[in-house]
Amino acid sequence: MVFGALGRALSTRNARIFFGASLTAWTGLWMHRIAVAWLAWEMTGSALWVGLVAFSDLAPAAFISPIAGAVADRVDRVRLTTIAQAAIALEAATVATLVATGLMRVEWLILLELCAGTAASFLQPARQTLISGIVPKSELPAAVACNSLVFNIARFIGPALAGPVIAGFGVAPAIACNAVAYVCALASMAMLRVAPAHRRGHPATSSLWGEVRDGLSYVGRHPGLGPLLAYAAAMGVLLRCVQELLPPFVERNFARGADSLAMLTASFGIGALVAGLWLSTRGRIQGAARISIFSGLAQALSIAGFVGTGWFGFGLACAACIGASTSMQGITTQQLAQTAARPEMRGRVLALWGLITRACPALGALMLGGAGEAFGLRLPALVGVGLSLIVFAWGLGRLARIEHSLEAPPPELLPDPARG
């Protein structure tokens, strides 16, 4: 059956609650992102300030994620998830209130987004490590793909809702929806039944910093995880930043407004949704490394088309391709990281992945936004595409080593001969 792997990943009560709450929270998150980016652009008219706002949300991962991963491996992950979700809901409610009352300033927006980014840095490893506790071990690759699929469904629904809400009622209601969504996700945590072995990676040791160093050293020495995550990080800096600066692209390249921003973001989501659905039905990790490496090439070519055109219809098509290629790289990289990492290291490895997915686009957005003030956005973005082709050649040269290291399933995911 085509959707057999996906159906098995959703077969348990825990999984349905977990992914349902994820869909709710991430839909609110995407509404928040669209609204905040448009708010920053409206307040300043500056690509640099839009980049700074994106940077403030994503950059805390660069400093917090390694620590957050070690924390997620030694504390109750359900409790940590609950606290982080509450913090994000509070931040969204505060932003919405300041906007609605006319008291918002861009400096306060940056400060509040820094707070939300810090909470998200703790939330990502805590929540993602729970996946291994809500599905059978044999269905973990499908569940990881399902998790990304849910994220990209929200990536389609959120902008589709945000555009009309912003156009009809303003930015504040769209941001308030994120607060409500995270409160709903927060309430769902009490409904989960997670075994103690999956709520905590290992007993706490005397040194948190020692565990942070151990996690970084583990990834750095790993023959597959090290180069795969380095490849993803480089692509994140050079290419993912374009998606963080959509408002300036919408107005400068296409001469359009908030509705078109929502259409573009929804196109990213549609492409990601199709790619995620396909990967969810695969239900296996064999071939994932090749997909991850070549998705970087596809993303580079799609971005070249997107930044090089002024035709909005072609821009929408390129956005869908960018969304698909970004999703394929993200899903396959996370599948390999989840299945290859030792259980006691899983939180730290996933935290490092969270750092890559948040801090690298943030750094790239800051660089692209700054360069855009001097040279326009098109030329710096195309320079990034050219550099990413060099990174692709580097990754392709290491593909065989990555495949050999990561695509053999670990013993706990192999079928049990005693069970036939």
From TrEMBL:
Keywords: Cell membrane, Membrane, Transmembrane, Transmembrane helix, Transport. The keyword Transport applies. Its main location: membrane. It is a multi-pass membrane protein. CDD domains: MFS_MefA_like. It is found in: Cell membrane. The chain crosses the membrane at residues 17-41, 47-71, 83-104, 165-192, 261-280, 311-328, 349-369, 375-396. GO terms for cellular component: plasma membrane. It comes from the Bacteria. This is MFS transporter. The lineage of its organism: Bacteria, Pseudomonadati, Pseudomonadota, Alphaproteobacteria, Acetobacterales.
